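step: validate -> pass
step: tokenize input -> pass
step: predict -> running
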Amino acid sequence: MIELINYLQAMNPYVYLALLAFILPTYLYLTRNFYLNIFDPVAMYIVMNSFAICLVMYMFIFDEIGYKSFSIFLLNNVFFWTGYAVIFVRYKTLYDQRLIKILNSVRSNESYVGIVLLTIVTVAVSILLFLSRGVPVLSENPSDAKILLYEGGFGPVRYIHMNFIPIIVGLSAIGIVLCFASCKKPSLLQRGNFRYIIIFTIVSLLLVAMGSKGSLLSITTFLSVGLYYLKINNMKQIYDKFIYITYVAFASAVAYLILIAFLTTGSSYDILSHIIVRFVASGDVFLYYYKYNLSDYYVNHGLKDFLLYIINPVASILRVAEPDFPMGAEILHYATGWAITSFGPNAQFPVIGDIFFGPAFSWLYSLTLGMLTGYLRIGSVKYLMRFGSYGTVLYLFLWSTSITIPGDLILFIQLTFMFILFSIPVYICTHIVASLSISRKQKHTSKNINCLLSEANYVEIE
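step: predict -> pass
step: emit ->
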């Protein structure tokens, strides 16, 4: 990070800002059909990726990256979105109808039981974590406390937080939207809404306690799905209310981000510097990889190494292999000479493609990742809608996290594996509890019907 900060301080800000002023709106316009609205995770990725692209273009302008590497970088980005567009065109026709159907299942009894169980598990492990490690937001340095929070054997809790909390927030937010959409006189205090609001509030407070800035933005991420649901159902009046709520939620998340930065730095100037570094740092791996010509370190890497690379996250979790150091940490080590640790820049797809497939085939890797990302966000709903409440939860998880694929494929693999590992037992319990509840209601209904029939027969005899 020190290397990046020194580089940023030496930059010509006017050149960089001029590039950003052109790239950001152009990028958002060209990809406008690929995100539901500005709060969609794809739109957020595009915003952050714009900063990264501008950094690479700045390096090219000042001869810090060769023409060949720069051209391949741009082509990789083009092929990624080409792959995404192929899937988008293939599945977009019936996507709206399928999305409506899978979201409507959020209000089912089984889905609500699932949300409750997920919340109970999350709150329980969080209480144990806070009792052992303390509450990050109450510490002297919330940012450092959040990083160290999961040490001492609490690694699984980290994955529960990363996977369950956004889904709970998403399901409860969508549940609130659906309640408003289906009621003639919607109210926050009506039973259908109130139970979702309680869950939403509990988990939101948990996010605040953890000092988790990124996870707070997941609230607006899933509200974006609700907004799109209202839009395609032509519910303009309710849509106008929720777009206001979404803006408030987004502004609150940003304000909280600034507050945490202030508690960490204690200076208004440092806050601004911290935020600028966070945005520009979205392209830090490109700075290290291209500026220091690190491709020479990976000339012997190929398909076999790539397969081992993507298998290792699961194999290490299952304890059948030792975990590898992150590729970003390795790149940072080669660029700066610092010791390799578990922290480093995200290994984004243009770099990974160049490392394992070289300039000749990195475009194919980018195209494949684009198609995979598009399929998980748009195409998978066709099949997951058949699996009831668990299909809904799995789809929303993939919809929200698949955009991490271009930024960090390994992180996506880890999150997906741990989500499936932890969520399947929860939803087996969900199905059992929901089935028992339905059976009890059916017995109660049958008993009432029998009583009514007995009374009718008695009256007839009289």
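step: describe -> Residues 2-94+270-401 form one domain.
step: cleanup -> pass
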